[in-house]
Amino acid sequence: MLGSIQNLMINELCAEGAYLDGRELGEVFLPKAEVEYHLELGDSIQVFIFQDSQGHMTGTTQTPIAQVGEFALLRVKEINSFGAFLDLGISKDILAPFNEQKPKMRDGHSYLVKLYLDNASQRLCASSNINKFVNKIEPEYTPLEEVNLIVASKTDIGYKVIINEQHLGVIFFNTIFKRMFIGQKLKGFVKTVREDGKIDVVLEKPGMAKVTGLSEQILAELTAKGGFIPLGDKSDPELIRKTFSTSKANFKKAIGGLFKQGKIDIEAKSITLRK
Known about the structure:
Helix 1 (208-224) packs across helix 3 (248-260). This protein starts with a strand and ends with a strand. It is mostly beta strands. The chain contains three helices and 18 strands. It has helices at residues 208-224, 237-244, 248-260; strands spanning 5-14, 17-21, 27-31, 44-51, 57-60, 71-80, 83-86, 94-97, 110-117, 124-127, 146-154, 158-163, 167-172, 185-193, 199-202, 228-229, 264-267, 270-273. The strands form four sheets. It has a five-stranded antiparallel β-sheet, with no helix packed on it. Strands 8-7-6-9-10 form a five-stranded antiparallel β-sheet, with no helix packed on it. A five-stranded mixed barrel has the order 11-12-13-15-14. Strand 14 (185-193) and strand 15 form a beta hairpin. Helix content is 14%, strand content 39%. It is elongated. The protein folds into four domains: 5-60, CATH 2.40.50.140; 71-131, CATH 2.40.50.140; 146-202, CATH 2.40.50.140; 208-273, Orthogonal Bundle (Arc Repressor Mutant, subunit A). The longest helix has 17 residues, at 208-224. Residues 216-273 form the Conserved virulence factor B-like winged helix domain. It comes from Pseudoalteromonas aurantia 208. It holds the Pfam family WHD_CvfB. Residues 2-62 form the Conserved virulence factor B first S1 domain.
């Protein structure tokens, strides 16, 4: 498929490069600079397929930041009468037409976009109109279901995230204990699907499952630091958040459980691994 990485067979080798069997796309040209000396007719090579400025099917062995159908944070390299050209991480930039820019793009800035094939030109393009690609089907998530998230934007109440590349949800500020940024990919859990279809998401699973995972993280950190960490039940919540990406309340639950198990000793501002 155009805009994706494929394994293609070499049909012809010439002075300019190689022609690959692109199947339904026809011949795909690979420039000489990217044809390794040991390759022969019939060999297969992994390439990313795009159209050059003349519309010819072209391959590159360079790895793009994203492929067709994927979301990615891309930087604007140039703006002209056609739209904004974004850095895809290869020799070919990708166009975001003006009518697919929400908000309007600015030179040098980065935007979360989705790569798609334009129906009219069949060219690979990018769109920052995220709403166009999500919430097309009814959400059917179970409470505390683990999901893949992409941070889409920052709002007055939290961060808007794309869930499993299908729906939009919100993570509220008061549930966030780690640094977040646009385009970031991470795991999370569906907290609630409301009657109006809006979805609340959290980064930590509520309850003892969260504390259990944190306890294991604390033990691993103690082991790595020689059995001592300068954090205790009276430590600054911000220091705890920076170290373990969690709230002070959850941290105290976790170290309390480890103390009862006889695994650590707790001081006001430190914990020690018992030998």
